[in-house]
Design goal:
binds cytidine-5'-monophosphate, alpha+beta, 12 helices, 4-stranded antiparallel beta sheet
Length: about 325
Amino acid sequence: MRSYSLLAPAKINLYLEILGDRADGYHELAMVLQSIDLCDRIELYANGTDTIRIHCDHAQVPLDKSNLAYRAAELMTTQFPKVFAKFGGVDIEIDKRIPVAAGLAGGSTDAAAVIVGIDLMWQLGLTQSELQELAAQLGSDIPFCIAGGTAIATGRGEKLSPLPDLDQVYVVLAKYRDLAVSTAWAYQTYRQQFNSSYLVDTTSLEARATQVHSGPLVNAIAHKDNTKIAQLLHNDLEKVVLPKYPQVQQLREAFAAAGVLGTMMSGSGPTVFALTETRTQAEAVQKQVEAAMNQPNLEFWLAQFTHNGIHIEH
Ligand code: C5P
C-alpha cells in the first residue's frame, strides 16, 4: 500500500519514581505507564521523492527536524538505505489532538506511529522488539508508545514489562492552554534539589526496581482494583513542577475536591488527570472543576484507558 492511516494513543503515568542518575546523563526510573484513547491521527504517504515532509496545522508542532516524527522517518532511512532507495520518501500528515508539551507523550507517540507505519509501508516485517529497539534510540517513551496498554517501565523508561489490561477506567485531563513544561527542565531541577537521596550503586537501583515490580500498585493492577490504583498514584516530578506552577497545584486540588478516585500530574506535566469509574462521573467532574477554577484558559479532555498501542485506523 502507498498510504497508511494510524492512530497514536497518548499515555499517562500512574507512577513515576526517580531512582538515581545514569552515566548517560538521564535518570534511572521506575514507572507504570498507561495508554489512553486520546489519539493523534498520523497519515503516511509514499511521495516518490527522496525527502521526508511533515504536514501539520497546529501552531506548536514544528515541521522540521526538531519534530520527533521527522527524526523517526530519518532513522528508518538511515537504518534501511536500500529499502528507502526502492520505496522513496514519505509525507507525514499529523492530525494533532493530544496537547503538546503536556506530559502525555504526544510527540513520542507520533514518532512511534511513523516507525510502525514505515515498517508496514516498506514491508520490513520487523518484530515488536526490533521496532522498540529502534524507537529507544530516539526517546525514552517511544518504545512504550509502540506497544501501549499498561506496563512497568524501568531504565531510562525503555525497559518494559507488560501488565494485565485494565478496563473501564475513565480519565478527565486538564491543561492550561498556554502553559508548557520542559521535560529536561523538570528532571534537571529535580536533580538539583533531590540528588542527595539518589540511589548510587547498581545493586540498590536493581533492588528498588524489583520492589516496584512486586509492589502495591502492580498488585492492585493485577486485581483490577481501580480504587486502590487511584490511591497509589505517584509522581516524583510533582515535587518540582507544583511549587513552580501554583496554578497546576490549584488544579490538582480542584480535582481532589471533586470526589474523584484519584488525581495526579502526568509525566513532567503540566497536564493533571483524574480517574473515575464511569463516563457520567467523568463529565460531572469536568463540569465541577471547570466551574471551581473559572479559567477560560483551561482545556479539558475525556478519555478512557485503552489496551492499544499504535494501530491502523479502520
Ligand atoms: O528521552 P526524552 O527525549 O523523552 O527525554 C527528555 C529529557 O528528559 C531528557 O533530555 C532528560 O533531560 C530528561 N530525562 C531524564 N531521564 C529519563 C528520561 C528523560 O533525565 N529517564
